[in-house]
Amino acid sequence: MEIAETGVAPPADQAKASLMIARRRRITELVEMKRMVRVTELVELFGVSDVTIRNDLEALAKEGVLLRDHGGAVAQTRTGLSTAFDQRALLNLDAKQRIGAAAAAMVRSGETIILDAGTTLMEMAKCLRTDIAMTVITNSLNIATEIGSRPRAHVILAGGSLSPQTISTVGPLAERDIGELLADTLFLAIPAFDPELGLSDTSLEVARVKTTMIAAASRVVLLADSTKYATRAFARVAPLADIDCLITDQRFPEDATRQLMSQGITVHRV
Hints:
This protein is of the alpha/beta class. It folds into two domains: 9-76, Winged helix-like DNA-binding domain superfamily/Winged helix DNA-binding domain (Arc Repressor Mutant, subunit A, Orthogonal Bundle); 93-269, Rossmann fold (3-Layer(aba) Sandwich). 44% of the residues lie in helices and 24% in strands. The longest helix has 24 residues, at 11-34.
């Protein structure tokens, strides 16, 4: 009763709180240094349960120290166009790399392809073969720079206004440039897709460019990890029936896979 009345915490609780503060301070240092940490490595490092680590990460995320990711956390970047893009690129990075590699393997010599903007498409661009000829149409400044130095790649960069969100061009000029071209395959990124609501984006300008890209391509391949499924964003892009193939990760639901395949959409879970 004396402890409760005076408000003094028991020594054991004080020690526990001190350990928690020290642990969270160390987690913050690790995130700043490594840019990304996983729950499993923190559990092993501190010798605590995964529940404890997840609680630590949630608390630090609320403080704005880091961003939560599936299985871990990534560093919080407050300013800068390219640094913000790099921060988003760390989210679900393993899945994005596998999806990007699978998409790159689909490209054949002599093809004309459209590469949408986004972090997953950037992973695809890194994996494209350097020994084959291709024409790449894109509105992404990062992707154009990544591929532009390759001797057998011809890059066409759409004009327009800069979208800080995706480091890509948008607006009437971008729509006009892309709309006048024809491509074999579009590799499309999307922040949200749903079997009933279709594809949607957080920006109306970005959504309009994506719609134009779909109309310009003979085949549409959607690159989207499972976190984008059964969600919707602000602006409509196209019905799900407009895509021919989905490349996603192993977490994508099996029932959704069967549903899409019954509609003639090929699904690759990588």
